[in-house]
Write a structure and sequence with these properties.
The chain is α/β, with parallel strands linked by helices. It has a domain of 135 residues: P-loop containing nucleotide triphosphate hydrolases (Rossmann fold, 3-Layer(aba) Sandwich), CATH 3.40.50.300. It is 27% helix and 24% strand. The strands form three sheets. A six-stranded parallel beta sheet has the order 5-2-6-7-1-8, sandwiched between helices. A three-stranded antiparallel beta sheet has the order 10-9-11. The longest helix is centred in the first third of the chain and has 14 residues.
Length: 194
């Protein structure tokens, strides 16, 4: 039986690069890979997965309210495995479908995403992956103070932001990976702000 795997980390921890390298390795080994991402992540275009180091690939997209199995059944049956990037934006029902794909369709499912938002609250997709994934891997990122970064701190011209909408898309222009201590003390370590 195939497994559902979740790899999580903070922003800038190379999760997307790892996902795209996994895809490349599987394709090079002769596997047919179905690459998916939620429509919520449209920073680089609706159907593109792009790493900060510059590698990218086209992906199939799904809305949070769509059935993954219903929308992609023929692709699921034709593929050898599935990779989902930005999986934190998935719903509980979609995570349960990914688990079903692994168990009942016998297709390995590799998922990549954030664990928590800028307030340290779980994203729905991540919460349910922690409950249902067979394998969970953390990708480490180092805070500028030297400790492990575990917080996706949102900031603006006034410093770290602790309140606001759960999802505001952005990269280094809005978020910085910090350790918990730096986050609580409001330390951005000289981050250049526009």
């Amino acid at each position: 039986m195939a497994k559902l795997e979740f790899t999580y980390g903070t922003m800038g921890s190379s999760k997307t690069a790892i996902a795209l390298m996994k895809r490349f390795d599987l394709i090079e080994s002769g596997f047919n890979v179905l690459l998916l991402k939620p429509t919520t992540d449209n920073r680089d275009g609706t159907a593109i997965i792009k790493s900060r180091i510059g590698i990218s690939a086209e992906a199939k997209v799904n809305d949070k309210n769509e059935s993954i199995i219903g929308k992609f059944l023929s692709e699921i049956l034709d593929c050898d495995c599935i990779i989902v990037d930005e999986v934190q934006f998935s719903s509980k029902e979609q995570i349960l479908q990914l688990k079903q794909i692994a168990e009942e369709f016998d297709r390995p499912v590799y998922t990549y995403g954030l664990r928590t938002d800028f307030k340290l609250n779980f994203f729905e997709g991540s919460e349910y992956l922690f409950k249902y994934a067979d394998t969970i891997n953390g990708v480490e990122k180092t805070c500028e103070c030297g400790n492990e970064a575990i917080v996706n701190a949102r900031y603006d011209d006034n410093g770290i932001v602790y309140e606001g909408d759960k999802i505001i898309l952005g990269n280094n222009d809005k978020y910085k990976a910090l350790c918990y201590t730096c986050y609580k003390k409001g330390r951005l370590h000289g981050k250049k702000r526009n």
